[in-house]
Design a protein that fits this description.
The chain has strands at residues 3-7, 10-13, 18-25, 33-39, 46-51, 58-60, 68-73, 78-83, 92-99, 114-115, 119-124. The protein has 125 residues and is mainly β. The strands form 2 sheets. Strands 2, 4, 5, 6, 9, 10 and 11 form a 7-stranded mixed beta sheet that branches. Strands 1-3-8-7 form a 4-stranded antiparallel beta sheet, with no helix packed on it. The chain is globular. The protein starts with a strand and ends with a strand. The model has no long low-confidence stretch (mean pLDDT 96).
Amino acid sequence: QVQLVESGGGLVQAGGSLRLSCVASGRTVSTYNMGWFRAAPGKEREAVAAINWSGRSTYITDSVKGRFTISRDNAKNTVYLQMNSLKPEDTAVYYCAADRRARVLTTTSAEYDYWGQGTQVTVSS
């Protein structure tokens, strides 16, 4: 069993930056693919970024490409989402997720086995 805890969310002005962290406990996630998803008001949950078990392969959705970066530190059992040049459209609850059967990166939420509680990111105009 894996527990995931996100942190780093908050209120920021447009153009600002935040760094989200997701710390896993219970077991190592060093062999798991990891993902960040977000749920904006009135919108379906969408994949934002994903990273494979080794960190050598990443996915970034088009709407945040060039602004967001996903990374991981397996020694710390932690995955990060660096968010720069934030826009009001980025306002959402951001969730960390883990896929224990890692082979190919997926953006399908149903394929992720463990989820964090979410952290609120609010970007003001």
